[in-house]
Write a structure and sequence with these properties.
Layout lengths: L7 H22 L11 H8 L9 E5 L5 H9 L5 E6 L2 H10 L4 E4 L5 H6 L6 E6 L8 H14 E11 L6 H5 L2 E9 L6 E9 L9
Parallel strand pairs: 1-2, 1-4, 2-3, 4-5
Antiparallel strand pairs: 5-7, 6-7
Helix pairs in contact: 2-3
GO molecular function, one term: methyltransferase activity
Protein name: Methyltransferase domain-containing protein
GO biological process, one term: methylation
Length: about 210
């Protein structure tokens, strides 16, 4: 896996087109997209804080969008780490494959994550990095995503979830995880944050609201 080699001019052009691509999709699809703009560098930095890239064997990104987190992940992962980028939107996948031709981009539904990974010979996952709009995803699909993720996550794994509604969904994630903490990133546009979730509750009752 090689990092992006875009020149500063190309990167600037890509950042601008990425913004409009995400914003347009946010306007047209609403709650199906987590944020009206790609994640800023401070949010990405916080999202990945605490990952030991020297020991991680498998990292999965869910809902990569245009790839601001993917870009940094590819620069940080070691040769022994398997990094899988899962995205359901076809146009986002096309953008990701053009931008990161050596990355393992998987177009698929996170509700079937265990099967997507099994088909690729991946068992246990050390870290999941999620940009999915989990609270606004319809209840049956959301429940399937968490159940599928639980089957794949290692016992010491961390589920990292970005949000542009800081603190609002703390209790929501407490339904699914035994240990939930939150880090605010006020300098992101819009202000955002990251939930750090550990130890899935196997008997979690999925909240419908």
């Amino acid at each position: 896996m090689t990092p992006s080699t875009a020149t500063p001019k190309q990167a600037k052009k890509s950042n601008g087109s990425d913004f409009w691509m995400v914003f347009k999709k946010f306007v047209t699809q609403g709650t199906a997209i987590a944020t009206p703009a790609p994640s800023g560098r401070y949010l990405v930095r916080e999202m990945l804080k605490g990952i030991n890239f020297d020991t991680a064997k498998v990292i999965v990104e869910l809902g990569a969008g245009t790839g601001p987190i993917t870009d940094i992940l590819l620069k940080k992962v070691k040769p022994h780490t398997r990094l899988l980028i899962v995205e359901i939107e076809a146009d986002f996948c096309e953008r990701l494959r053009r931008r990161f031709p050596h990355a393992e981009i998987v177009q698929g539904d996170a509700a079937h994550l265990d099967k997507l990974l099994a088909d690729r010979g991946v068992g246990e996952v050390d870290h999941m990095v999620s940009g999915l709009p989990m609270p606004s995803i319809p209840h049956p699909i959301r429940k399937a995503i968490f159940e599928s993720s639980m089957k794949c996550m290692g016992p010491e794994g961390v589920f990292r979830q970005l949000t542009v509604m800081p603190y609002v969904y703390w209790n929501f994630y407490r339904h699914y995880f035994q240990d939930v903490s939150f880090k605010l990133v006020p300098v992101n546009l819009p202000p955002a944050g990251v939930y750090f979730c550990k130890k899935f509750k196997p008997d979690a009752a999925d909240p419908k609201k």
